[in-house]
Amino acid sequence: MEINGTGFEADNITFENTAGNTGQAVAAAVRADKAIFKHCRFLGHQDTLFADYGRQYYVDSYIEGGVDFIFGNATAVFDHSEIHANGPGYLTAQSRTSPEQATGYVIIDSKVTSGIEATAGSAAASETSAPVRDTVSRDTISLGRPWRPYSRVVYIDTELPADVVPEGWNAWGKTPGTPLAFYAEYGDSGPGANVAARATWSHQLTARQAAQFRPRLFLSGTDHWDPIAAAAKLP
Length: 235
Fold this sequence. Notes:
Layout: E1 2-3, E2 9-11, E3 14-16, E4 28-31, E5 35-38, E6 41-43, E7 49-53, E8 55-59, E9 62-65, E10 70-72, E11 75-79, E12 82-85, E13 89-90, E14 92-94, E15 104-108, E16 111-114, H1 122-128, E17 141-142, E18 152-156, E19 182-186, E20 203-204, H2 207-211, H3 215-218, H4 227-232
Parallel strand pairs: 1-4, 2-5, 3-6, 4-7, 5-8, 6-9, 7-10, 8-11, 9-12, 10-14, 11-15, 12-16, 13-17, 15-18, 18-19, 19-20
């Protein structure tokens, strides 16, 4: 589905591409400024959500995929949402093309989850009534990689699972030396929030630095749009 209208609002809607792990299969392509998605689900595998243009606010929503499944060059915030990996790969592939652009993705007060379960050890799992993972299922999720050189993604106060690779981010092998991408975290938690092992070119923000990425400021624009107030008017 393509969404192009300014001020588009969706509440309690599922956007799904049922193609499975067959290559690019977009569930929703969003190129709408001041778009709001509340209580929505985006289901797919590769390239599930094409968040490509304008200011976009996702709240209390669920996005699922396996490879680059949130991608594009929108100015987007994912607030109190669940980002679910259903296969090894990259959660985001943001595509900012210059440092002057205000675009980027912010995942805030959210939770990253993983459905990459081990196939081995099923007997032990049945005996303990708990899922058993083998070493293959760990370290298989990257927080993001740069689809374009100045890619920008920030995770704030978000819970990360053990499946997140210790270095957190991937440079995609396109940029020699220090990547131009801006990848940062603040206050993340969970077994995947391994600050000491993060890529040396990524950032751990201060509270003051993180403040600029909170929804009301990051999505404000020249018209002072308040996405939280707008979303509150939806059921």
